[in-house]
Amino acid sequence: MADYGHDLTFGSFLTPGNRDPQGVVDLAVLSENVGLDLVTFQDHPYQPAHLDAWTLISWVAASTERIHIAGNVTNLPLRNPAVLARSVASLDLLSGGRIDLGLGAGAFREAIEAMGGRALTPGQSVTALGEAIDIIRGIWAADERTPLRVKGEFHSADGAKRGPAPAHDVPIWLGAYKPRMLRMVGAKADGWLPSWSYLNPPTLRESNAIIDEEAAREGRDPREIRRLLNITGGFGSASAEPFQGPPEQWVDQLLALVLEDGISTFILGSDDPRTLTVFGQEVAPALREAIATERAAAGTATGRIRSAAVLASRVAGIDYDSVPASLAARSVEPGDRGYAGVRSTYVWSGSPGLVLRPTTSAEVAEAIGYARTQDVSLAVRSGGHGISGRATNDGGLVIDLGALDGVEVLDRERRLVRVGAGARWGDVAAKLAPHGLAVSSGDSGDVGVGGLATTGGLGFFARSHGLTIDRVRGAEVVLADGSVVRADDGHHPDLFWALRGAGGNMGIVTSFDIEAAEIGNVVFAVFAHDASDIESFLQRWGRLVEESPRELTAFLTVVRQQGRFIAQTYAVWADDDTDEAALALQPFLDIAPVLQQQAQLAPYSAIVAPASRGRHEGQARQRSRSALVDHIDGRTAATVARMFTEGQTSYFQIRAVGGAVNDIPTEATAYAHRTQNFALSVLLRGASVEQGIAAWDGLDVSALYLSFETHDHEAALTKAFPGPTLERLRKIKAGYDPDNTFRNNFPIEPARG
Question: Membrane-crossing residues (predicted)?
Fold first, then answer.
């Protein structure tokens, strides 16, 4: 038996007595404050002197910020496994990924039966535990679209709906001692959680051997299974007894258990504040230092252990063993439980070979350095709407910025806010609303900040306050060489110019400083029209928008349903003047038969509230085409109508620009389209995609919007960036990314020579 190489973690095991309910909560908070990683509680529902463990776990989760929480161990016979799965996942989501699951088969049969539970023999309990694990994991597998069906002898699920998925990969640890239970650990669990008082060193080694043998039989690497241990003791003068003596004696004893028996999590059973404090502040750091020295000398493999199934899913061209240590724990590969939640974007299904999820700019720099050494394509993702298809790939590497999601008001007087590239615009709006601020940011709260704020940003305040990029005042950028720089008018002004329109080609922006607008409530209107005469409708709608005051920004979506054209308008009047808004909105009711209408005074945060919270599963493969035009003229309207009637599309959108967007000089940003009044986009699907592309190309437009254009044709580059803009971008690219690391956006080749 030897060290399995797991990182060391330390926890407390507290008595959930109900005589002093706040006392146990205070000890949990103390556990966090003294540096422990985990706090656990007994779960004996039949014990009237105890608080209910799950209620206590929930309360402690709300009272702490960092520490993980678990039952030690949860009494399965009195907890329905499907409901327990949902409870754990829900609290894990609410706590930011801090709930772990210890499970026990239930040892006190008479007490369980007295509480209405089913008394099982030891053998039956093991069978029931295995069935429960299958149900719990099945409920958490929210990405699987089939109902959950587990037909067990003691626990069943027949058509249960799956979900939610937890916020993190919740480990299941089993409290086990007998051979059948130990084999269950090896076959299905993520960890083994015994108590020292029930063991001795020979038993510990024999039990580990049974677990390892069963794991190997199931095709698992035994190192996948963390070995935890509940211990009790106290600090004082030197003693021959285990865990009785000064901290340095504890370190020696625990070090032997790590090196010889593979224990990597020590959970101290004590309700004494001083004992917990010494354990967290003296023993834990000293043991970590000692084990680091021993592992370095022995060359012990450390880091995350992946299953044989995951290893078999790895793709050529990626050196998985060289992933930087700072990124390895959060990285996701095919076969990992969390892979389904990160592989795709909202629109595009993907199958990347590796997803890196940095949490800081320094980690982004490490991710870039690693990516440059791999022989696969690189995609960068912020929120993951990804209409253009550039935020995922097949067989490549994805750097997911979702963890860089901070929103901070830097200077309220100047309306200056700092927003992480991985934040979503709905969350940004919600956090700025109490300050009376808002940033124009597309039409969906699920869209990520990074992609939109480096491309343009066609939002509901476009005509009144400009594009999102027009409000950016600075950015933190990680360059291809790994350096982290500030880009603004006074620092790297050439890079700052390029970021606003072509940022994805120059580096990875990790945060933006944005001058928000002073906006409280706005008037939000929704109209649905019967647009059967679609050509006439589109032209009338376009003229009306152009004639409207710039306080009004309108977006239009046209779909075909059962042979009829339905046109839905979303319109925002950018302040709370309802009288002026009504005057501007009234004409929309006269352009075609109205099927539905409503208008309300609402905060901007309610209009762009996030809907899906991150789990994107992709959709049917589709292509998108875009165009920026001055007017909705007869030719444009006729082309769109024909594409609908010939079945080349069933979805078309117009977003109003103009107004404040066109106040900005053409040369001020890399987004150079400052004369057009409308951004058009169309989705092309099915067998008639090529005919649809040909029809759209017949519009013969000279400009397009990058984020709504599938990057599968070279002509898009020159339409996204006019000649002088593209030439300038290539020169800047040569300075900041000469090796063209960021080439999977619309490919801007660095200037040569």
Answer: none
Other Cβ atoms within 10 Å of 420 Cβ, number: 25
Domain range for 380 is: 308-400
Does residue 605 sit within a domain? yes
Tokens for 382, please give them: 């912020």
Among residues 273, 298, 323, the one where a domain terminates is: 298
Kindly indicate the confidence band of residue 715, based on its pLDDT and cuts at 50, 70 and 90: confident
Alpha-carbon separation of residue 232 from 14, 38, 43, 403, 664 (angstroms): 11, 16, 18, 37, 69
| CB contact at 8 A, 281 and 35 | yes
CA distances for 291 relative to 7, 195, 252, 284, 715, angstroms: 10, 22, 10, 11, 58
Contact 608/445 with Cβ under 8 angstroms?
A: yes
DSSP 182-249: HHHHHHH-SEE--BGGG--HHHHHHHHHHHHHHHHHTT--GGGSEEEEEE--EE-S--SSTTEE-HHH
- 438: in domain: no
- pLDDT band, very low/low/confident/very high, at 451 (cuts 50, 70, 90): very high
Query: In sequence order, what are the residues at sequence separation of 6 or more whose Cβ sits closer than 8 angstroms to the Cβ of residue 74?
Result: 43, 53, 54, 84, 101, 102, 103, 104
Those residues with Cβ within 8 angstroms of residue 144's Cβ, 6 or more apart along the chain or in another chain: 138, 162, 340
3-state secondary structure 453-475: HHHCCCCCCHHHHCCCHHHEEEE
| Count of the separate structural domains present in the chain | 3
pLDDT the model gives residue 348: 83
Question: What pTM does this model have?
Answer: 0.84
256's CB contacts (< 8 A; 6+ apart) are none
- CATH number for the domain spanning 614: value is 3.40.462.20
